[in-house]
Amino acid sequence: MRTLDLALIGNGRIGLLLDAAGRIVWGCFPRFDGDPMFCALLDDAPDDVARGQFAIELADFAFAEQAYVPNTAVLTTTLTDRHGGRVEIVDCVPRFRQFGRLFQPISLVRRVRRVSGSPRLTVRLRPASAYGAERPATTTGSSHLRFVGAAHTLRLTTDASLTAIVDERPFFIDDTLTFLLGPDESVPASPAETARHFVDETIAYWRDWVRRLAIPFEWQSAVIRAAITLQLNQFDDTGAIVAALTTSIPEAPASGRNWDYRYCWLRDAYFVVDALNRLNATDTMEGYLRYVVDAALGAGDDGPPPQPVYRINGEAALAETVAEALPGYRGMGPVRIGNDAYRQVQHDVYGSAVLAATHVFFDERLDKHGDVALFHRLEALGRRAIAVHDRPDAGLWELRGTTRVHTFSAVMCWAACDRLARIANRLGVPGRTAAWREEAHRIARFVHERCWNDARGSYVATADGRELDASLLLLADLGFVAGDDVRFASTVQAIERELRRGDFMFRYVEQDDFGRPENAFVVCTFWHVNALARAGRREEARMLFERLLAARNRLGLYAEHIDPASGEQWGNFVQTYSMVGLISSAIRLSVPWAEAF
To answer: Above 90 in pLDDT, residue 246?
Structure first.
């Protein structure tokens, strides 16, 4: 049965997911939102016949062990048979500096080494094409195989028997075998030499990258793994960071809540940029900021408003279709391509973009700083925020059948105006500081008057409403209220009573277009941790954070949702939001380095 107990490897061009036995079950080519040539994760056929996989199977298999090479994105999987035979698989997607630039081939390196005994292997390399509808044609060369798909061709260069691979026949391994899977190009050196160079340089690259991070004293390994994962979710060519690398993993069993997350949401900008800033990952942050600002400011005052979500190349159209050939995760379709959320009106995008761009004006580490010209362009977003702060939208939870005046959207419109006032003050732009402060105060009055419910003693999810949602936990982090404000404390308590199930927080519990939510939203629980810390309940926050860390999969990764009863993860994987939540909470709660010894 498929699970999300998966490992992620990648290099900022492609990302691959591997199961506990080292089987590659997901990977899109030639980029994150491309054709999933490895799609077994969404095929409900048995492992030995599933399409879209790259498996190295051990005869008489007994058990597997798996771990990352410390502080890297290189994975090792050790397979052991019932007779003591053992092999080690090293999986690496190359990423390192070469000739003054970053080398990121659309390639996978798999190195298989006999450790003990007389292990016998079967290699099943079955890329798919056209979202599982076709199997690529296979051609054989002197030391390679070509898999010619509808939109992309892969070449396997290897020192293993091509016949054994094509026929999927078992064979004994007595030394080391190398598999190089990548573009349809010849490999100038031997496979073994090429693999050794790629793996060694990639390990060195990631260890150097980690050394440059600013991390908290406590929970270091968890934060490092989250930081590497966040970097692997960035498409370096444009700077876009995808919400997740998969499509259509349901939020709950047979829920129909199957969405394509291989795109970049502007909403994520505030959270992601904040985490990258705290980590000192300035290169990643600068690339992402460029993408966000370009996307948000493309229309100006007169064009269409910014969309909630864009393709990783900045393209606007994301019309949904269904991949009919794939049955879906555990047979729970549909498998969607594209995301119709791009058509929605979501007013929080203005605040998200301005909050992210604010770093450009205040962070002196960055190569390019914000100037008056950029400020005036951002003012266009502020003017839009003023106009819509009290109008209905789909909200941050992207409701498909309902529009309401959402409190979070109004607060993010406030944030756009508030940060524009701060930027104007920083730049010394005559008259603009006071003007934007006044607009921020006006929106704040609306929220305090229309989005506070006296009967509940809480801010509520919508203007003049009664229901709650977890976004209200962010009011203090956004600076809308103080952490010690009694209204914030009572809001946190109300949310705990209504939305918390065990340790985990639901985003909301009211019925929506698909019924009532069944699983908790992982990042909302991190918002709860941060809200507890803001409200002075620090020890409670630390204990909850520790329990959240225990809910990660065995390699330290999160999906989007979690079953609060069983702890099983659901939803698209690996979820950027969830990993960012871990980083944010760890940095907030850790003992400072100056007090650690």
So the answer is: yes
